[in-house]
Records
---
Amino acid sequence: MDNKLMLMIPGPTPVPEAALLALAKHPIGHRSGEFSSMMGEVTENLKWLHQTTSDVLMLNVSGTGAVEAGIINFLSPGDRILVGSNGKFGERWVEVGQAFGLNVEAVTSEWGQPLDPAQFAAKLQADTNKEIKAVIITHSETSTGVINDLEAINRHVKEHGEALIIVDAVTSLGAYNVPVDAWGLDVVASGSQKGYMIPPGLGFVSVSPKAWEAYKTAKLPKYYLDLGKYRKATAKNTTPFTPPVNLMVALHTTLGMMKKEGLESIFTRHQRQKNATRAAMKALNLSLFAGDECASPAITAVATPGIETDKIRSLMKKQFDIALAGGQDHLSNKIFRIGHLGFVSDRDILSCIASLEVVLPQVGHDNFTPGTGIAAAAKVFGQ
Ligand SMILES: *Cc1c(COP(=O)(O)O)cnc(C)c1O
């Protein structure tokens, strides 16, 4: 059957019909009054989502471009930075820092383990000359399904006083509490194809007053990603370059949906779906790649020793039209990942678990009683 694809990957995520219909409209001119008034509302709602009164800027980039912009606008060549690295995305920010000639020190943990706040504390406390200019943290490490303790790490950054905290919140924003002002997060980057419930193509960067101070003296080269240009334009409800107008109309729609649902309900929904998914995987005798204490609300990584996970994914796609994500790098074919981020309902989780119960015995994993996965999830949803 065609047209029944269910995306359960951590981006792109499913798009609600109201947003799809918005995308289908004729583009409007980005210098029109109609666009400006829409952009004003979008900007206000982005600040609401970020829990900030400072700037949230929109760029035509993927999530990586948003993080790159969040790095290069506030630093100078040779600046010392600490980068948390416990998965594919943490490794990427190490590479970006190196590509721009920063003095990068990776603070690592094994893939599947959370970053250790004490390691950051030790380095920050030892830095009495205040040479560390920024700490970069991937909040929800999508490659492993681990959520890092941003709040604890950020407390050590605040005690240091000089360093900026730069956050990849691509799969935490809109799924988990990221209170930008309350925590004093200087730069928070995200992308449209994750919690925002629209297709890929827009990146978002929030910038604190402290980060704007650093911007004044930052010397890394920039042009298209110069956030100062976006700040000036955003203040006048316009954009420095041609924006993806249709995506912004769709964003206007989904931000309205998010406001209606409310931040607390959104976070609770992601938490509930995470709990149901994890309970089901345990009941099916599968192992969870991340521990309960550090499990991402957006994505559950499942290890399947002795089974090639690509076989599971291809049967899930063929038999049920459900797309699951695989593992990256050394985890390729060793884990599969269930995305429960954005426009995902409890019903979608039940469908996914039931389908897995059909598929798993076909790849040789049959040491569970049919129905136990669903029962475990039903218990969570019934509470
Ligand atoms: C998806 C994602 C990104 C951005 O990836 P793009 O492909 O550039 O959009 C960055 N960080 C995390 C944690 C992600 O999940």
---
Amino acid sequence: MLAWTALGLALSLRVALAQSGAERGPPASSPQGDLLFLVDSSASVSHYEFSRVREFLGQLVAPLPLGPRALHASLVHVGSQPDTEFSFGQYNSGASVQDAIRAATQRMGDTNTGLALAYAKEQLFDTAAGSQPGVPKVLVWVTDGGSSDPVGPPMQELKDLGVTVFIISTGRGNLLELSAAASAPPEKHLHFVDVDDLHIITQELRDSILDAMQPQQQLRASEVTSSSFRLAWLPLLTAKSGYYLLELVPSAEPGVVRRQQVPGNATGWVWAGLEPDTDYDVALVPESNELFVGPQHLRVRTLPEEAGPERIVISHARPRSVRVSWAPTLGPAAVLGYHVLYGPLQGGTAQRVEVPAGQNSTTLQGLTPGTVYLVTVTAAFRLGQERALSAKACTLPGERSRALPLPDTRARGP
Ligand SMILES: *[C@@H]1O[C@H](CO)[C@@H](O)[C@H](O)[C@H]1NC(C)=O
Ligand SMILES: *[C@@H]1O[C@H](CO)[C@@H](O)[C@H](O)[C@H]1NC(C)=O
């Protein structure tokens, strides 16, 4: 427990230092999203602690832009059964939400947080419960550290759906478990604070919530390569309520559009077969008869093309060996390595040798004298692609060939 106190102190200090820094400017664009407070209201929390938490949450929301086309807030009590104090869109200003939080009464009972998280998931994604489709979702869980039922799996489900999870622990609690439960990185999403010191984190938490609510963070690209990238978005539709139309256009050639339809329960798509080093404009257009959700746009630039071997030089030809070298030489940062495949041009089994990244030559041994080989050098890139170049190599005629020369041996010399 000593470690806990030290950690709490360290976190509080860090927060206090951060607060003394320059004031943040207003957010780049007006935030929109659903903010759900999940508050431990069970008998494990003292009345005093509960009243301090209420005060803290009230001060946290008061300056937030709440209302239509802005943030919606809801408060759910954790107890034997989850219980909604107020739902999304019920109050349309920071001040009225603050009043509603101050009026909330403690429910007592068990601490069934897992149950409450499953309930929170329904509230966050059910438009009938007042949630908004296609907006960022944030969960703020205030806990004294304990739960009667498992928290990990339902929390993971929420994060998989794109919900940003902040955890405020006012009591004991297991650091590792709570770090895993909060969104990454935990330094930003997990706070250990004494109930009497909650005011220390108010500003930082409010700023982090607003950051998470920035609408431009919704459509994201990842795993960008020279020929592909992955798109990911928050759930806006369901399989029943509609589908998405994805559009991909090279920025320099607006006429060349690729389209793809994906089901309403999809939250990602990989675009492949793209040109290297090229800007693409991507649009995600939700199509639904039930909901109107606007399109989202993103520009993504593919990586420059990986250059494979551009030149192969055959040298040191002997009856049973040749040396193969190539350029350019790529290091371990670019390639995993090279493989060199060789076999008689006239047919026969091919063999393969591996050459580590950073080297540009190998000597092929055990060859047949006076034979034409096809040699292929392949660079295996870190991102999975391969680039190859081939060349012909001839071995010198051996002793036996010299004793019984073939008519065209000389013409085949290197
Ligand atoms: C979408 O729903 C269908 C069935 O309705 C299911 O087979 C599919 O796996 C789901 N896809 C995703 C990405 O959840
Ligand atoms: C292979 O690398 C060596 C040393 O870096 C260089 O001198 C040589 O020209 C390279 N081989 C080819 C075929 O470019």
